[in-house]
Amino acid sequence: MADLQVAPWTLVIPVKRTAIAKSRLAAAYPQHRPELARAFAVDTTAAALASPLVHAVLVVTDDPVVSGDVTAVGARVVPDLPAAGLNEALLHGATVAAAEFPEHGVVALSADLPALRPAELTAVLAACVAPRSFVIDLPGTGTSLLAAQPEVALDPRFGVGSALAHQASGAIPIELSGIESVRRDVDTAADLAHAVQLGVGEATADVMSLVLGAATGTESLAG
Questions:
Q1: 217 carries a ligand binding annotation
Q2: Confidence band for 3, pLDDT divided at 50, 70 and 90
């Protein structure tokens, strides 16, 4: 990837406390929802760090278990000082990233990409040549990645209808084929089933083994 004329990127990944994260998975995975939320974040972080265009990953979280897990795979934890929601956490992380790595672009990445492939993320980052770029999630209305070039404000607008909000703000959608793992954020049991088909990371696979064990009455033998 050395021939790509793209500045290295610093990624900012926001992670809620797992006690309240992924509430839409609670019905299908009542016992394992917090563990799944943690595993998604760990696998997303590990895959991001494996991209040659990623210089550093800052995880914005106040969850102590997540903090330990993502630090173990090479990320740096930034406390969520604003504690005021997703966009505020991203702005805080982006401010820290820009101060420490001013020559790098800043990327906001969903923490819910357990099937993320480093090669697909690298292809997306290489395509982020506009001042601000974003990736529309598979449902078509949300955003899984938002990138801003050095010295360009990230201006995150995550939430309901964020794809339209980011496009209206001037961000350019990345229209590449073969980047399903970057677009497959997981909110529902159906999303997770699709992610498993794509191939999830080690942490999520471990939790899914526990889920299977619980379903078959052999949870104590899993792993």
A1: no
A2: very low
